């Protein structure tokens, strides 16, 4: 019976939003969930997106069905942004999905359909949502060491050794940039070695790219993905526009598949559409339509790149500010994207919550761009106090 269902552990990041909302203290700081906040501490809609939505409202003539791959022009316009020099390769095909999450589920379902015995190699730590998504699809997970939180460093040799000892056909889940939850990204040189290991072992690379443009830049953040594409016959990429267009709740993303030939990619695409049909049939239109309108005009596309650079610059300037404020936070300046991980015990995280009204994940992960400019000093001083205690 439904009444006999076992209790579930909820998404701890989403639970943290509710916990912080319920705190009556007016100076509370929410550095839990990953949304960009500006100097005033709010998450505004990008100007280009607001304008595109107005245009959409005024010009859209129908809401009849688009078809299973969603807005094909949206994926076509994303192609050069994501793929760079590989944009013309028709053995790489993409389709619109409900957010990066939709792309991840589809990708793992596709893997399960092609090779039910494939194991997924997942760096530790990774984005907590990866685990239930992979398990939900029924694939086995094998962890590889990625980041030593207390040493504030990537465990690169151990990572490489783990990839080199994997089974041919295993899947290597890799974060393209702005690693969530650590902010610790591979250097280009390290990417080159990872690509070599993936090729040598015959692994299937599965790239999660949810923050393109928020780290070093649009092209720089796609370095690893493009290098994999250049060297591997088969590559999967789950892409999200939710962060770099600030359209989180509209659920905008895409899945990209490369196989050795256009024909087999088309078959893989058809398989993926069949899988989508079993879940949501077609992705929601609104957010992707707004993104398409922005990218379809060179002037608004350039304006988006500027707004994106503004978000990136704010992230990096806050990183520099944390690093300058306390030598124990110096590592934050060498990392990218919205997150870094503080070497705090769970008790220290709770102390920040209870004594200082600062809400971060139990893991010590915090959103570096989660607070207003005015709150930075209070945040740093609370963290320094707790670290010293
Ligand atoms: N992958 C990573 C690493 C993320 O941090 C996120 C964040 O939401 C996603 C995928 C999914 O993105 P979306 O919100 O578009 O589903
Ligand atoms: O890690 C984060 O905070 C973002 C947002 O189920 C997020 O990626 C968190 C949980 C979730 C979906 C998105």
UniProtKB/TrEMBL annotation:
Signal peptide range: none
Database matches in SUPFAM superfamilies: PLP-dependent transferases
Superkingdom assignment: Bacteria
Pfam family, one: Aminotran_1_2
Requisite cofactors: pyridoxal 5'-phosphate
Keyword Transferase recorded: yes
Keywords in alphabetical order: Aminotransferase, Pyridoxal phosphate, Transferase
InterPro entries xref list: Aminotransferase_I/II_large, Asp_trans, PyrdxlP-dep_Trfase, PyrdxlP-dep_Trfase_major, PyrdxlP-dep_Trfase_small
Domain Aminotransferase class I/classII large residues, every copy: 26-382
A GO cellular component annotation in the UniProt record: cytosol
Keyword Protein biosynthesis in annotation: no
GO molecular function annotation: identical protein binding; L-aspartate:2-oxoglutarate aminotransferase activity; L-tyrosine-2-oxoglutarate transaminase activity; pyridoxal phosphate binding
Gene Ontology biological process terms in this record: L-phenylalanine biosynthetic process from chorismate via phenylpyruvate
Protein family (similarity comment): Belongs to the class-I pyridoxal-phosphate-dependent aminotransferase family.
PANTHER family assigned: ASPARTATE AMINOTRANSFERASE, ASPARTATE AMINOTRANSFERASE, MITOCHONDRIAL
Subunit structure: Homodimer.
Name of this chain's protein: Aspartate/tyrosine/aromatic aminotransferase
